[in-house]
User: What shape does this take?
Amino acid sequence: MKEHNFIIGNEKRLILIAEDEFINREILGNILSNDYEIIYACDGEEALNQIKENKNKLSLVLLDLIMPKINGIDILEHVKKDSILSNIPIIVVTSDSLSEEKSLNLGAADFIPKPYPRETVIKARIRRTIELYEDRKIINYTERDPLTRLYNKEYFYQYASTIDTYYEITDALILDIRHFHIINDRFGVHYGDIVLRNVADKLREVINQLDGIVCRKEADTFMIYCPHQDNYSFILDKLKEIDSSIIYRIGIYEYVDKDVDVSIRFDRAKLASDKIRTSINKNIEFYNEKMREKELYEERLINDFEESLLNNEFKVFYQPKFNVKKDKPYLSSSEALVRWFHHDLGMISPGDFIPLFEENGLIQKLDKFVWSEVGKQIRNWKEKYDFYVPVSVNVSRIDMYEPDFIDTLLKIINDNNLTTNDIYLEITESAYTSDSKQMIEIANKLRDLGFSIEMDDFGTGYSSLNMINELPIDVLKLDMVFVRNAHKNHDTKIVEFIIDIAKYLEVPVIAEGVETKEQVESLKNLGCDIIQGYYFSKPIPSNEFEKFIIERKNLL
Ligand code: C2E
Ligand code: CA
Ligand code: CA
Assistant: This one.
């Protein structure tokens, strides 16, 4: 076997042995202490602290999976998420062979079983793992972005922590080019590349002077990490030298909290720069307390989600839709709208958590719950009243990507002896904006199975008119802004136009957000078929909704 020198300069490499049983610590320590410098942790909490404290020195961690306070799996999970810690190889040591796969999936480098194999085997595995990781690091370290020759992200993150040791107060900046795709479209990708290279050069020049570093994160987004400055407009001045018509935006997280992971510092800078999208005359925005509060609030909602779901804090409310074609309006269906009665924060409206859950995939779980509640509720009404009205559920675009999406719906239908006529699906128009082909395909599959697709928020998604024929639509839901504006400006042209589209498609129109008698009358006159809104009822709990069912049944 090739002999490796395991001593760098005069120093041995550092290994952390995280193991709660004294005797095991002793055994491993004895085997390794000749070749390595060893530190120990006796429980999970201590292990995590040691890893963080020695992140720049550790060559390897030997991790027992079952330990007090924090178990090994949780440590692996934590380390995997951290851009710096994840560079430290971890070998899992355990008697449970079933955990092997799980640990490897969580980024463990290797696996040593208990009882321990022969000494030479343990040593060889450890040595191999360290070699592998060090080689990999060298590759990463020397890699630069080929286009701009700036550091790559991995190196940049590593280097950022070095800056932390020299400077107490530092700032994280994210810079990107406004409408860069337009530059690419108009002048060609080649020109786009030249712009990116010029931006990189200028940034390197000014940021080097500050003792800071720059990297290209992706496409036209650059990250800057440097000692704190009071003013950053000099960056924009410098970039003007390239082409004064190019506009940039910079998000800054200043006075960074050194306790948060480097990548999170840049997430915060990004949050600030995202704010600029809406304001035209501004190029620089700072991460502030308010964004921090929002971030914390959203973190809390995400953290509490699972438990709230188990504790039945989510309730499905129902809002009636009335058919107004005849003289006397009658109940035609309802929409299921979820409400979160948080044990601590009180009632939270879907506007606060649906978009958030759409970002991180929790929406799929929540919607499955909502649909299944709706399925049970319809069955219950059928049994109780020998009568029912269909319920529409909201379907997020994210739901449609889930491979078992259609099966989930069918199972709910079957489990409750329903048919695809009992549950309508509301899909927002904007769901078709990107991947439209795939979305249309899925929606068409649903229609083939007998589901009705209600196109939600119609008019806000910018469907082009020549595309409209291809969209799967059984019902068109006019977005409430149009109802509101028509009433406010006494101008019904847009509403009329959308109703014309519906007539052309030969589908009924639902107007939502209808609050007053005048709105009802005017929409009715314009040819609207169904009306939903506070005028008839707010969304209400299922037991209250029953009055509408009884009333409707008595009409028959
Ligand atoms: P949406 O699907 O457009 O739902 C209509 C929203 O308008 C509901 O808000 C409803 O309460 C409200 N609304 C109805 N009539 C009136 C009215 O006359 N005046 C006013 N001012 N508002 C009215 P809500 O319940 O807060 O839901 C907001 C959005 O959250 C929904 O918009 C929908 O996109 C989403 N959402 C709600 N429940 C679910 C769900 O279970 N799953 C999914 N994926 N999304 C949901
Ligand atoms: Ca809806
Ligand atoms: Ca809507």
User: Anything to note?
Assistant: The pocket of calcium ion (ligand 2) is lined by residues 335, 394, 426, 456 (CB under 6 Å).
